[in-house]
Amino acid sequence: MRIDAYIAEHARNAPHQTALEEGKKSISYSRLDEDISTIALSLTDFEHCGFAILAEPGMNYIKILMAVYRSGNIAIPLPIELPGLSLERILDAACINNIIATKKQYLRFGDGFFERFGTVIVVSDDTAVETLSKRVICERNNPELRLVLYTSGTTGTPKGVMLSDKNLVSNAGSIIEVLNITSKDKAALVISPHHAFGNSIINSHLMAGGAIHTGTMSFIDPVFNLVESGVSIFYGVPSTYRILLRYPERFRKAFANVRTAASAGGAMDRAIVRSIRELSPCTQILPMYGQTEATARLAYLPAEDVDEFIDTIGKAIPGVTLDVFDSENRPVGPEVAGELVARGDNILLGYLNDEAATEMKIIDGWMHTGDLAQKLPGGYLRLLGRKDDLIKIGDHRVNPREIEKEIEMNNEVSSVFVVPVSHELMGNAISLMVIPNQETEVDKIFAFCRKNLPGYLYPREILFIDHLPLSENGKISNRSILEEYQHVKASM
């Protein structure tokens, strides 16, 4: 069963139930089902072909996505936050012949951008469909393929993750179970729907027959107004919460009736948890962990354990098995570092047009996440950083996240970020970027490092910064840290 089939079922059983809201507009499941079918009619001549989707977040994006599903074709959402050249690299690598765009995005990118496609279909705000060009080309695609999501890659062209209907439905079902989503719930979708987290919000709430209120984080007042419209489950990456918590009184008022504050896309730290607790004590906090390659999510931290185990990713969601393997792909014991691996019905089919990367990702049925982890009592797991984030200093392999935690726990600082820098003898050394607080003293940090860290980890320099080194997707990665470091050095 496809996700769009659940919409058709809700349209029959609860036709007047609200499905989508955007600003002051709303549509029922009956109307949503009709609009999906209207758009799908323009795709009936195509048989299991790839369709790039170029659409801004909102109702029309969801309608177009579901229409591609209903027509039996393959949806390839384009992350519109990327510059045009990056999108063109994705299109060239994926060899996409067909595109369906909103009127707004067609006008934004212009005629020249669309000349590369044999088929161009434009959908207006009123769901009117216009086929500007049409060339049906027979494609040979994986018969199970339904959706290609692009990872939030930070180097080169992001990988296209191939997902099936089984992947989408199984992961949505697991999320519904973990979050106790019902038809009475309304979700706030203010993060990008073009990536795995946003996509999973759409799938799980429409599958459950609930409502989704779409918006963006572009302006603060509309976000708080959206939450106050009756949202019961709010979703955000850690930076989403950091931004909203800058306005404590608005947060207190808006989140008074929010049942669950869910998080993914990075670790939710104790400061965020503490602030939410203070401002909205009745809101349960539910951090989650996942990857695009897992259709969205792999693990969750039960709300009752957040205060004690916030430094973990919790345990596997229903239908997923997690383990930690050594370099020989053998399970390790508790408290031993290794690579986190996963299996379940949510695991990707593979990477689009990249068999070599697929073979490295999936080994003997296990998906290798690339994250270092430890098994803890009770089935919980603690992440130790990215496997490819390890820094080689001489003969030593160093986990920068462990150094950062050690310094943060023993010094008066807000945050610490380890930066790998070139060293004439050791190959690499480290520098530190520090977000200070009022008591931070650079000499004390140097003294702590000299006394408590091995000599090869003594920082070459310590730079003060005033904000988190976030990527375009609101995440902190080795690349975003290095880019911020380069920016700071260039401005000195």
Q: Structural class per helix/strand content?
A: alpha/beta
Strand content: 25-35%
Query: Rounded to an integer, what's the Rg over CA atoms?
Result: 23 Å
Task: Determine the mean pLDDT.
Answer: 92
Q: Could you characterize what this model shows?
A:
The protein is α/β, with parallel strands linked by helices and 492 residues long. It is built from 17 helices and 27 strands. The longest helix is centred in the middle third of the chain and has 15 residues. The model has no long low-confidence stretch (mean pLDDT 92).
Protein traits:
3 domains, GMP Synthetase, Chain A, domain 3, Rossmann fold, 492 residues, 28% strand, alpha/beta, five-stranded mixed beta sheet
Could you provide a short overview of the structure?
It is built from 17 helices and 27 strands. It is 33% helix and 28% strand. The chain is of the alpha/beta class and 492 residues long.
What topology does this entry show?
Elements (H helix, E strand, L loop, with lengths): L2 H11 L4 E5 L2 E4 H12 L9 E5 L4 H12 L3 E4 L6 H11 L3 E5 H7 L1 H4 L4 E5 L5 E5 L11 E6 L9 E5 H15 L6 E4 L6 H13 L2 E4 L5 H8 L5 E4 L1 H7 L3 H7 L5 E4 L6 H10 L4 E8 L4 E5 L5 H4 L5 E2 L3 E6 L12 E7 L5 E2 L3 H7 E2 L2 E10 L5 E6 L4 E3 L2 E3 L1 H11 L2 E11 L3 E10 L5 H11 L9 E3 L13 H13 L2
Parallel strand pairs: 1-11, 3-4, 3-5, 5-6, 10-11, 10-12, 12-13, 13-14, 26-27
Antiparallel strand pairs: 1-2, 6-7, 8-9, 9-19, 14-15, 15-16, 17-18, 18-21, 20-21, 21-22, 23-24, 25-26
Helix pairs in contact: 1-2, 1-8, 2-3, 7-8
